[in-house]
């Protein structure tokens, strides 16, 4: 409707109708911030976590109501000071805080206004991750160190996993642009008869670290094509044995599975934590965090997993998971693998972004 027509309609009404007309028009032009739907994923600290200072503050933001963010930051307790994120999508920093209970308010802006604030309340005074233990809520200890972002590193290669039936063929693109990120790694595979494709890269050297946390985002275009989504981490210890911190979300057992090594080879074991990649929302970034540790004998314990901010503690996962593969001592290698869901043929498109491993 053109402005002259609106003006003529406005003049043709009595005073009360004109007032109502203006209110209706303004309601269509002005959108309250509360009308926006937020999409902020808090990685740390989570609600009810017990952490030490300095506190890891980590969150990801994709804006709201279909609009990209223009600014992202946080404030602590009642402070009016906004600490800006490293980008308008991510906050990843350490903040010194006094002992006691605190609340962090994560705040995002888009071109049309302010998104709803997402807050998390926690206590400072102890670490939620201790040597050899698990936690009721995840937060990285202040002394954890990152190996850096892995998806952007060179050297990625792909191959068919001979342990799966059928065939597969894979390819990659980096950088690829998809839904809020310009620097994601794209994985594409075609398969027959449940074939699996494995993409992998060696990204650092460290034979001494024993605690690790995987932190990454995964995007599936069509989850119904995915039977298993596998996220592996291998470390060659000073003994020369390759320690396998392997985890997969399986549509068969409908759990997070982990690897055990016996005299007959390596095997997947079901855990107590539910997971089924076919139920994941399509074309959506899913935030995955997995914590595990090892001992000097080659036993690996999966401690906990977070999927999109929901925390689950693994139970009874300590198992021997070491092999002598002849790899160079200190090698750190990660695998990203997808197994096809159908006995016929199909294809899978997936992306990862901001893949990191923390260690201590």
Question: Over all CA atoms, what is the radius of gyration?
Answer: 24 Å
Order of helices and strands: HHEEEEEEEEEEEEEEEEEEEEEEEEEEE
Helix content: under 10%
Q: Strand percentage, roughly?
A: over 45%
> Mean of residue pLDDT?
85
Number of strands: 27
CA(first)-CA(last) distance: 64 Å
Number of helices: 2
Largest sheet: 9 strands, antiparallel
Q: Tell me which oligomeric state these chains represent.
A: single chain
Parts with pLDDT < 50 across at least 5 consecutive residues: 1-38, 126-137
Principal-axis shape: globular
* Structural class designation: mainly beta
Structure description:
Strands 10, 12, 13, 15, 21, 22, 23, 24 and 27 form a nine-stranded antiparallel β-sheet that branches. Strands 11, 14, 16, 17, 18, 19, 20, 25 and 26 form a nine-stranded antiparallel β-sheet that branches. 7% of the residues lie in helices and 54% in strands. A hairpin with a 6-residue loop joins β4 (69-76) and β5 (83-84). By secondary structure, it is mainly beta. The termini are far apart. The protein is globular and about 60 Å long.
SSE arrangement:
Layout: H1 3-11, H2 15-29, E1 38-44, E2 50-51, E3 55-64, E4 69-76, E5 83-84, E6 90-95, E7 100-110, E8 113-114, E9 118-124, E10 145-146, E11 157-160, E12 167-178, E13 181-192, E14 196-205, E15 211-220, E16 226-236, E17 242-244, E18 247-250, E19 255-262, E20 265-274, E21 285-294, E22 299-307, E23 310-313, E24 319-320, E25 322-323, E26 331-340, E27 345-359
Parallel strand pairs: 2-9
Antiparallel strand pairs: 1-3, 3-6, 4-5, 4-7, 7-8, 7-9, 10-27, 11-14, 12-13, 13-27, 14-26, 15-21, 15-27, 16-17, 16-18, 16-26, 17-25, 18-19, 19-20, 21-22, 22-23, 22-24
């Amino acid at each position: 409707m053109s402005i002259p027509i609106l003006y003529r309609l406005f003049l043709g009404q009595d005073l009360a109708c004109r007032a109502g007309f203006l209110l209706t028009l303004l309601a269509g032009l002005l959108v309250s911030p509360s009308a926006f739907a937020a999409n902020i994923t808090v990685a740390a600290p989570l609600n009810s976590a017990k952490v030490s200072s300095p506190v890891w503050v980590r969150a990801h933001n994709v804006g709201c109501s279909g609009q990209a963010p223009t600014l992202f930051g946080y404030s602590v307790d009642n402070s009016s000071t906004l600490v800006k994120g490293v980008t308008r999508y991510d906050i990843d920093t350490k903040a010194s805080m006094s002992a006691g209970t605190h609340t962090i308010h994560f705040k995002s802006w888009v071109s049309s206004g302010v998104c709803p604030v997402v807050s998390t309340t926690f206590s400072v005074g102890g670490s939620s991750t201790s040597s050899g233990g698990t936690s009721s809520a995840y937060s990285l200890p202040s002394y954890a160190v990152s190996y850096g972002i892995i998806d952007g590193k060179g050297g990625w290669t792909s191959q068919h996993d001979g342990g799966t039936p059928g065939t597969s063929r894979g390819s990659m693109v980096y950088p690829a642009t998809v839904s809020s990120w310009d620097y994601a790694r794209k994985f594409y595979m075609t398969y027959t008869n449940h074939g699996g494709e494995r993409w992998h890269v060696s990204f650092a050297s460290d034979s001494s670290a024993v605690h690790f946390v995987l932190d990454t985002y995964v995007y599936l275009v069509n989850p119904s094509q995915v039977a298993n989504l596998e996220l592996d981490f291998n470390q060659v210890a000073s003994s020369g044995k390759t320690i396998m911190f392997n985890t997969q979300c399986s549509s068969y057992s409908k759990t997070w599975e982990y690897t055990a090594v016996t005299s007959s080879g390596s095997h997947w074991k079901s855990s107590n934590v539910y997971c089924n990649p076919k139920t994941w929302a399509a074309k959506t970034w899913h935030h995955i965090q997995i914590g595990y540790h090892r001992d000097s004998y080659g036993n690996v314990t999966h401690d906990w997993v977070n999927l999109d901010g929901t925390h689950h503690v693994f139970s009874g996962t300590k198992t021997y998971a070491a092999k002598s593969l002849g790899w160079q001592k200190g090698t750190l290698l990660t695998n990203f693998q997808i197994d096809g869901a159908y006995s016929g043929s199909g294809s899978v498109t997936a992306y990862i972004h901001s893949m990191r491993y923390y260690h201590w």
